[in-house]
Recover the amino acids of this structure.
């Protein structure tokens, strides 16, 4: 018996999408690229690299559901940011729409930031 890691193609509990795997990968990449065009005006990093995006679901009908947070509940753009996200992701070809929901559970902390975001804000 080897101690080498094994590679599984799909866990048994993973849900299967009606969207072909290649198309799902393209949609995911394009959605992330769109999210990276949205910036928190107070921080010189995009919301994806800041770790503000908690969940992205692409439904079988190609509806995109995004759960996100803000750096703080009292953020001055709290009312505008979901619209910015919706507008950016709506540019992705092949989706039927976008539903953005906000959550503060768990609260955002700086350790959610990518290395790229840490460099951008001078923390690395």
């Amino acid at each position: 018996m080897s101690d080498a890691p094994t590679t599984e193609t799909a866990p048994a509990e993973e849900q299967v999408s009606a969207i072909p795997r290649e198309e799902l990968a393209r949609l995911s990449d394009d959605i992330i690229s769109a999210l990276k065009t949205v910036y928190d005006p107070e921080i010189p990093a995009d919301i994806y690299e800041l770790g503000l995006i908690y969940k992205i679901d692409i439904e079988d009908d190609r509806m995109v559901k995004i759960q996100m947070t803000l750096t703080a509940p009292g953020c001055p753009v709290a009312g505008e940011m979901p619209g910015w996200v919706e507008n950016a992701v709506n540019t992705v070809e092949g989706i039927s729409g976008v539903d953005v929901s906000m959550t503060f559970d768990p609260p955002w902390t700086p350790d959610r930031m990518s290395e790229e975001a840490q460099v951008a804000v001078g923390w690395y």
